[in-house]
């Protein structure tokens, strides 16, 4: 599509989204829930169509050489479509934050001040080729009273179109504006540029992806951004770690699902930790390629030499860089230099060291004696997630309904004039 046509398409979509957002903001919680339940039914009813569209994406993905992990992320079957519909229903059952009073105070002059949650407005989401995000993100935005413009990964375009068609039809049948959730129907990356620069037309953009997307966002974004970027996550095994816990968590943090953003990419091991060999052996036995320096190779002979670039690499695969460090402060300095502010964990039985790490590491999620793979809205009890916010504003970590709202001050007086 020509860039001028993309501009016109995006201008039309954003105008329709704004109109929908105005109507959504006035809907009650029950009305929004009802529409989402209708959307879940519509997704279930369209299961065969969605799976057929996905088969075409899978065929094209395999032909273009997508990795096994990428194909697994793209793949839908009856179970996954059913899970997607159930996810939309789960969002419908969440408590609606819109209208909640965050704080209330009364001034000496009698003015009563309240901060009340409101929708953000029009939210643009750019995400990877994972089709279930179309349903999750659309449902979360709508339940929080926002209109969504979704731009999924190009490899998933046919699946996304099919899911979106069902979702939008279901929402409309359930009484929500059809434009509450729109999908960018083309794969041209110019649409991403148009979203990033749509000041006034889009209120917030969520970029969910890796380095290529980061670079573009940094260069072009003029719309407020809630970054959901790469997960270069660390697990640090402290000298006071329980050896069995260290082994089990290191394997889980890397190998449970290697392709997700919460997977550990670098293992830091305190030189004072007595038992590193079983940890590294367990990882290698589980099929993980280890990369480390000579010290690491001396402990685990299957480890390959690490290059400088390894400390800055998000593998999203069964590969782990491993470094020996002199204590928690050096570990924290390494994370500050090489991490991506996503999720970092310490394994230790020493509560003081743990607190030092939890306070000192500046990431959206910091963990003590837990696997970084728990970085997930569902696992945090939020029902679903847009993703993991790695930015600093205004929500960090798993973003769900509350992260998709802002607030306004409501001031109630009895005729006060300012002296
Ligand atoms: N923090 C979080 O919540 C999450 C983070 N991630 C991160 O995403 C990455 C993995 O996904 P991956 O498939 O590599 O994601 P990509 O960054 O390649 O793709 C994500 C989206 O961004 C688009 N995109 C990428 N580069 C550009 C560009 N230069 N201009 C315009 N659009 C662009 C893609 O479009 P196109 O299809 O055209 O390439 C796609 O829609 C990992 O780094 C992972 O950590 C993943 C999920 C959640
Ligand atoms: N937070 C989700 C994973 C999100 C994610 O990383 O997605 P992807 O990069 O598409 O595999 C989970 O833990 O299942």
Task: Summarize this structure briefly.
The chain has 419 residues and is an alpha/beta fold. It is built from 14 helices and 16 strands.
For this entry, give a set of tags.
alpha/beta; glutamate-5-semialdehyde dehydrogenase activity; 14 helices; seven-stranded parallel beta sheet; 419 residues; Aldehyde Dehydrogenase, Chain A, domain 2; four-stranded parallel beta sheet; binds ligand VHF; single chain
Structure description:
The protein is an alpha/beta fold. It folds into two domains: 3-228 and 386-411, Aldehyde Dehydrogenase, Chain A, domain 1 (3-Layer(aba) Sandwich), CATH 3.40.605.10; 233-374, Aldehyde Dehydrogenase, Chain A, domain 2 (3-Layer(aba) Sandwich). The chain contains 14 helices and 16 strands. It has helices at 3-25, 29-45, 47-63, 68-74, 78-93, 132-143, 157-173, 190-196, 211-220, 243-255, 276-285, 294-299, 328-338, 351-360, and strands at 101-106, 112-119, 122-126, 147-151, 181-183, 204-207, 233-237, 264-270, 289-292, 304-305, 319-325, 343-347, 365-368, 387-389, 397-399, 405-412. The protein has a seven-stranded parallel beta sheet. Strand 3, helix 6 and strand 4 form a beta-alpha-beta unit. Helix 10 packs parallel to helix 11 (276-285). The protein starts with a helix and ends in a 7-residue tail after the last strand. The structure holds NADPH dihydro-nicotinamide-adenine-dinucleotide phosphate and ligand VHF. The site of NADPH dihydro-nicotinamide-adenine-dinucleotide phosphate has 27 residues, from helix 9 and strand 14. Catalyzes the NADPH-dependent reduction of L-glutamate 5-phosphate into L-glutamate 5-semialdehyde and phosphate. The product spontaneously undergoes cyclization to form 1-pyrroline-5-carboxylate. Pathway: Amino-acid biosynthesis; L-proline biosynthesis; L-glutamate 5-semialdehyde from L-glutamate: step 2/2.
């Amino acid at each position: 599509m020509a860039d001028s046509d993309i501009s016109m398409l995006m201008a039309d979509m954003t105008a329709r989204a704004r109109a929908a957002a105005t109507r959504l903001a006035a809907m009650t919680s029950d009305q929004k829930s009802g529409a989402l339940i209708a959307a879940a039914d519509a997704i279930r009813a369209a299961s065969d169509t969605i799976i057929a569209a996905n088969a075409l994406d899978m065929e094209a993905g395999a032909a273009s050489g997508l990795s096994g992990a990428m194909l697994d992320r793209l793949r839908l079957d009856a179970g996954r479509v059913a899970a997607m519909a159930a996810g939309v229903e789960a969002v419908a059952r969440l408590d609606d934050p819109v209208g909640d009073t965050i704080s209330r105070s009364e001034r000496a002059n009698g003015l009563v001040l309240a901060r009340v949650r409101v929708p953000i407005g029009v939210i643009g989401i750019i995400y990877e080729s994972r089709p279930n995000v179309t349903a999750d993100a659309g449902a979360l935005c709508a339940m929080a009273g926002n209109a969504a413009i979704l731009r999924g990964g190009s490899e998933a375009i046919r699946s996304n179109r099919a899911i979106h068609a069902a979702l939008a039809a279901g929402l409309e049948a359930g009484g929500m504006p059809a434009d509450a959730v729109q999908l960018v129907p083309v794969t041209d990356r110019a649409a991403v540029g148009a979203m990033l620069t749509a000041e006034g037309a889009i209120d917030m953009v969520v970029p969910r992806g890796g380095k290529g997307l980061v670079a573009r966002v940094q260069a072009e974004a003029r719309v407020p951004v809630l970054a959901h970027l790469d997960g270069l996550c660390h697990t640090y095994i402290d000298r006071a770690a329980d050896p069995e816990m260290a082994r089990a968590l290191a394997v889980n943090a890397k190998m449970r699902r290697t392709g997700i953003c919460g997977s550990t990419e670098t293992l830091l091991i305190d030189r004072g930790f007595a038992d590193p060999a079983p940890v590294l052996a367990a990882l290698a036995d589980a099929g993980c390629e280890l990369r480390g320096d000579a010290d690491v190779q001396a402990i685990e002979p299957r480890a390959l030499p690490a290059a400088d670039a390894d400390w800055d690499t998000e593998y999203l695969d069964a590969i782990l860089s491993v470094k020996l460090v002199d204590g928690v402060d050096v570990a924290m300095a390494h994370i500050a230099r090489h991490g991506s502010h996503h999720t970092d964990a310490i394994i230790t039985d020493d509560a003081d060291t743990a607190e030092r790490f939890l306070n000192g590491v500046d990431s959206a999620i910091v963990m003590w004696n837990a696997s970084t793979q728990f970085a997930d809205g569902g696992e945090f009890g939020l029902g679903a997630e847009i993703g993991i916010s790695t930015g600093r504003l205004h929500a960090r970590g798993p973003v769900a309904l509350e992260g998709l709202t802002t607030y306004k001050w409501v001031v109630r007086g009895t005729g006060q004039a300012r002296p």
